[in-house]
Amino acid sequence: MIDKRLLKTIIKDSQRTQRNWNLDKTIPKEDIELLKLSVSECPSKQNLIWYNVTFVTNKNIIKKIYQQTDGFTYSFDPLKTTTNSQTLANMLVIFSDDKDVKKDIKISDTDDTLISIGISSAYLNYTAHLLGYKTGYCACFDKIKVGKIIDRTDLRLIVGIGYPDETKDRRQHHLDDFIYPSFDKKINIKEIV
Questions:
Q1: Helices (H), the chain
Q2: What is the pLDDT of residues 25-45, one digit of tens each?
Q3: What fold is seen in the domain 11-162?
Q4: I want to staple 138 with a disulfide (CB 3.0 to 4.6 A). Which of 46, 59, 147, 158 is the partner?
Q5: pTM for this one?
């Protein structure tokens, strides 16, 4: 049984995104297979396939994808944006709709797709943190251009996974001195006993 104090630490740590990476390291194949298992064996409505997943470890492809993420707005007057360096990780996992399955069962339920991707990406995030990696989520990217890069359509989400750059604050952009903002949240939990 896992130590509950360790579990609490991992749960809290897994909510924070990583913006810079140690790219001198490579994620072992054995860990990649566990991460694939986590996105495959998580719950989905009626255990149907609502999404597809693409794992990318090719550094050149990762750089091309990263170049399509300029959309993080940090000033509106004047308008200033930056790229999302969560996508410069050691590995990217990209979620997309599974249109073929929806066509086969004659439905097009976006809610079920998004819920399933949320659950799957959470399993992925948690498994990555259990293995000692850091993660970052990105939904602000040019979906058409990234789709052409990986030969998929209907992209929804990119999750970066990897080794953090221990010489930088986790919020610092991978390539420059820009510091992304970070916020705390307080979820309203109601308990009925």
A1: 4-13, 29-40, 59-66, 99-104, 110-130, 143-150
A2: 999 999 999 999 999 999 888
A3: NADH Oxidase (3.40.109)
A4: 158
A5: 0.92
